[in-house]
């Protein structure tokens, strides 16, 4: 990449324009801005033509009769078409020259290694599809997957897809009550899990968490358990079986039947502004087209690449850019089980050198942790195999961008800052690595077929530099089709701000050059270390504790995590504030939701600031936490003494921390 200003890391880096190098552009699928603009224009003028061409790169057992049926907010893509998603990701590679190509190069945290070729992956997936069918799983049945980052997690997902079952993967860091919620909402009756997974040198037990959930939710008839760590787990007769026992008795042959393009593929739960996570429903043909097309143009993935996305399969990034996108492309990828800092902060860089990783996709929060750990770790490794870097989850701050660019990419790799969401299924705004001039902190321009805009409250397009709401004005194939079992909520959440237009929930502005700058969520959703958490979810977890009368949760800026969780709690009459109780309440959130949701600060309050109609004014709490005082409009506040008292509490806690 050529840079117009000196390469020091400074706050001016956000103004530096980084153009892709001639060498990179020359080999890229989209080699120039002119090529981007031309295809973008055509894709927006005739989106159906663009998407149909992309979809035809997949294997269809029956071709569609209509590309798009659109009556907002209901879209069906590729109606009449039939395909098998798993066949696209596995069989078609296993049946050709990619048969002996590595699909997954896996490393366990303790250092154990496995390489699985497309040919082997095919056999394993067929076997597991047979296991599922033997256990009575049919098309459209929901299967809950709660696993560590092991190849079997991918195999389980693909096997579900193969038989038309709908997987719902729950991130291994979630607690048992989160599993109960997701079982209840999805109605799954089969669970796939492991005894545990390795994380920071320790076994994180998983099966015991499932057992705890199944005491509350008793409709699960079968639990299949992978033996990963050998930690002791209880097996319930007639309900629980071992993965390895199931796999020995089944055939490695399995026919991939075709399903409708709109057949449900998976439900993935994500946080919204209510206490209950929403089950985002994705379907088959459109979703696969979206992830395949973005892998092709944005990661410019090639057969000779070694691609590595460090996300967990429990998040949408893992679904789209570990499982479905790269495998549909026939790519070779690295998959890693454990923590980035185990045994030290050199782990990722050692693995990049060892496997010759060429494309690396990670999150800004991880980059900030690496910066803090020091340059000596990446310096000790040869990272010259890298040719392209990616970022996802939150805006990448200029310092992190520059460090990533220089210390990891050696100043030569383009960085694709990819904006998207669980609901969008695939990346919607991102640079194209061989074309787009990049600036730290902007996800730059919309992808082909994506009609992104920024609107004001009245629905007018904002002027350059003006803040507004990020929207998408045309349907796209990988868009969510519904919130599982709740079409009304889907309509209300995403499609009711402006008629026929998708509202992302993010604030953004567009600069004169057309680049999109994402400012952050406009709703009560936090982004902690790139993970999405609903304030209402954490509040309801706090209120479920016997001592808590009321709770309010807000996000505050945090150097490492992007946002930290700050909670305010009022206690029931008979309970006393104490450091022990604070600790207990924080731990309680960990037990109810999972460690990622634990408040960083927890303030006891005599009351919470409310409007006269009783609505908690989180805006004031945010001001208090961020600035120590409240200067904004307080005319609707019911009782100002509450704010005065809170102000004291916060000042004391700041003094205490200093
Ligand atoms: C929210 C979606 C997309 C996979 C990971 C998160 C924020 C995501 C970016 C980016 C600025 C970003 C947005 C979005 N976000 N990527 N490149 N720049 N913000 O998926 O959990 O569904 O969260 O993450 O706020 O709405 P998710």
Q: Can you tell me about this structure?
A:
With 658 residues, the protein is α/β, with parallel strands linked by helices. The chain has three domains: 11-84 and 264-521, Rossmann fold, CATH 3.40.50; 85-257, 3-Layer(aba) Sandwich (Rossmann fold), CATH 3.40.50; 525-657, GMP Synthetase, Chain A, domain 3. 33% of the residues lie in helices and 24% in strands. It contains 20 helices and 32 strands. The strands form ten sheets. A seven-stranded mixed sheet has the order 7-6-19-18-20-21-22, sandwiched between helices. Strands 9-8-10-13-14 form a five-stranded parallel sheet, sandwiched between helices. Strands 23-24-26-27 form a four-stranded antiparallel sheet. Helix 2 crosses helix 3, helix 4 (85-94) crosses helix 6 and helix 19 runs parallel beside helix 20. It is globular, with a radius of gyration of 24 Å. It starts with a strand and ends with a helix. The relative contact order is 0.10. Mean pLDDT is 94; it is low at 1-11. Bound molecules: 5'-O-[(S)-butoxy(hydroxy)phosphoryl]adenosine (WT7). Residues 270, 316-317, 392-395, 417-422, 443, 504-506, 518, 520-521, 527, 532 line the site of 5'-O-[(S)-butoxy(hydroxy)phosphoryl]adenosine (WT7).
Find the CATH topology of the largest domain: Rossmann fold
How many structural domains are formed by the residues? 3
Distance between the termini: 43 Å
CATH class label of the largest domain: Alpha Beta
Mean pLDDT: 94
CATH superfamily of the largest domain: ANL, N-terminal domain
Q: Any guess at the CATH architecture of the largest domain?
A: 3-Layer(aba) Sandwich
Approximate helicity band: 25-40%
Strand content range: 15-25%
Structural class: alpha/beta
Uncertain regions: pLDDT < 50 for 5+ in a row?
Answer: 1-11
Task: Summarize the biggest pleated sheet.
Answer: 7 strands, mixed
- Give the C-alpha Rg: 24 Å
Which strand order do you get reading across the main beta sheet? 7-6-19-18-20-21-22
